[in-house]
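Running this now, will post back.
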Amino acid sequence: MFDVFWEALVDQHHMERKEDNKPKTWEEARKAKPADWYTSATVSLTTWLNMWGGLCHNARGFAYFPSWVRAIPDIFFELMDQDNDDEINAEELKNFFVSFLGMKDHEGMGESVKDIYYEMTMHGETTLNRYQYQQVFANFLLCRTKVGPGHLIYGPMEDQDIIDRIQASLNIT
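Update: finished.
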């Protein structure tokens, strides 16, 4: 998985810079970075945010993201849309948080998910179809504040235990 991710990053970098000296093999691409960059088990939050900032540089919306980034919300959407009706409902969203993200289904989570769903559907004015979910995902990547529903894309984050567990599983220091 990391090999594919690294190759996508290198390809995107060269495509944007229009450089002709693009590495032709994985070994050549590895030489472009210090050894500890791709072998380290942890990444700092600053490094992680800088990487995404570089990837999304000049992105004014979802259509401007690299193609592999645009594929991520489609994959998540397919995982969530369990009844294949091209819309995600609140129960499917909750199932995603519990089954895929590993959150504990506790009393009150249903209400939290309904609130999140309400935000993601523009206060109930639209359905959470693929296009709408892509916009929520774009808001997650581009927005630096809690304006918009993007900050809710990975579930109810009011519980510090959940935040600590996610950071630990991602090795974010």
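The domain at 58-169 is CATH 1.10.238.10 (Recoverin; domain 1). More later if anyone needs it.
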